[in-house]
Amino acid sequence: MKRDNIREQLKLQIADRAHFRCEYCLLPDAVSFYNFHVDHIRSLKHGGASDISNLAYCCPDCNYCKGSDIGSVGTSGELVRFFNPRMDIWGEHFELINGLIVGKTAIGKVTEEILKFNEPDRLVFRRQLIQLNQYGE
Questions:
Q1: C-alpha dist (Å) from residue 101 to 42, 44, 80, 82, 118
Q2: What is the pLDDT of residues 21-69, one digit of tens each?
Q3: CA distance 44 to 24
Q4: Which 8-state DSSP code applies to residue 79?
Q5: How many angstroms separate the CA atoms of 16 and 7, rounded?
Q6: Which residues in 1-118 belong to E strands, given as ranges?
Q7: Rounded Cα–Cα distance for residues 135 and 27 (Å)
Q8: N or C: which end of the chain has fewer CB within 10 A?
Q9: Residue 91, SS3?
Q10: Do residues 20 and 29 lie in contact, with contact meaning Cβ atoms separated by under 8 Å?
Q11: What is the percentage of the chain residues whose pLDDT exceeds 70?
Q12: What's the predicted TM-score (pTM) here?
């Protein structure tokens, strides 16, 4: 499949809209060793477009974990879509508890699990950022 190239001006617009933080885990790009990505919320493979309403600013960890997925199976056995930063409010689906990002809804829970928000290295780093007042909603 042909990769869709996002113009630099559009990338900057998307990053600015996200306040230069991952729209999934809220990691600020200024503290990352790696360049952030522009994520297709609904992947090209699933009919998504490279239009600003379908694009999110995303850290490499969240983007790699999400891939082209659009959801996962929830605890009830039903397909549950992922958190969508264009439609959803972060605080309605997640809460931050001692550095953990905890899903409060089915959407939050499947997103937390599949994007691996609370893997040990990510959790240690997030807690350090919180102590330095460099992380938060």
A1: 22, 28, 18, 15, 7
A2: 999 999 999 999 999 999 999 999 999 998 999 999 999 999 999 999 9
A3: 19
A4: E
A5: 14
A6: 37-40, 55-58, 71-73, 79-81, 94-97, 100-103
A7: 7
A8: N
A9: helix
A10: yes
A11: 95
A12: 0.92
